[in-house]
Amino acid sequence: MPLIRYACTHCGTWQPGFAHAPPTGCPTCLDVRNALPRDGWNFQTAGQVSEKLTTRWEQTLPGIWGFACEPTFGLGSTGWLLRRPEGNIAFEGAPWYSKPALEYLEVMGGIRVLSASHPHGFGALWQLQEHFDPLLVLHKDAVPYTKAFQVRWPVDDFHELAPDLTLHCVGGHYEGQTVMYDARTRSLFCGDALKVDLDARGRPTALSCHKGFHYAIPLSHGELRRYRAVFKQLPFENVFTPFEFARGVTREHALALFDRLLEGMPHTRPLSLEELS
Ligand SMILES: [Zn+2]
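That's the MBL fold metallo-hydrolase sequence above. Prediction below.
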């Protein structure tokens, strides 16, 4: 019996399953860090997803493209592509890559290395792996969540993709959650280590962090201290999460947020950037 892949319409997680029977549950929705779908699960095949989603892309910063879907699907992740002379790097995945999107990626030189922060940013990484056969690098503790694709190089807490592009494990929100620092653009691809509130014009207004967003579960002080120790080494001025691009959110903003949460009982409420400046 052939295996195919199914996407959960509620969170966007892809998983392999039997062609004659959709999955009975979604591991991401069953986890405490996501909500359950109120009306039950709806799993769709690649063919069904391709019929309903359009993939769009735009250059966010010079040399960095974001790929996302319309209408929003699942958690609504964005996959980032860094165009680099030694070969392109993709970090996080869009929920779906249409044929034109894959063709555009091909014209841009394909993908040499593929990685991601944690399961909420995985999207359709499997499509990028199938199409471009990149080196798939992921933290060793994130491997249990990768049933839909194949990790080629499980890495430890620090990994250098290039001298100016490094992976740093921060854990906290998810086991093995890893951030990527791009020294060239002073950008931090921070997974869900930070959540950024944006105004109607897309400008960042507030920051928060969480263990679980839907249930408003805060991080422990130990987890916050680990975020702080890693972020302190990375002088960033822009933040890319799997869901937001925030120009002008800096290391100082993030450290101020962690310091505030370390002062007393931690919480998940957003603090305005003014408060954190
Ligand atoms: Zn997450």
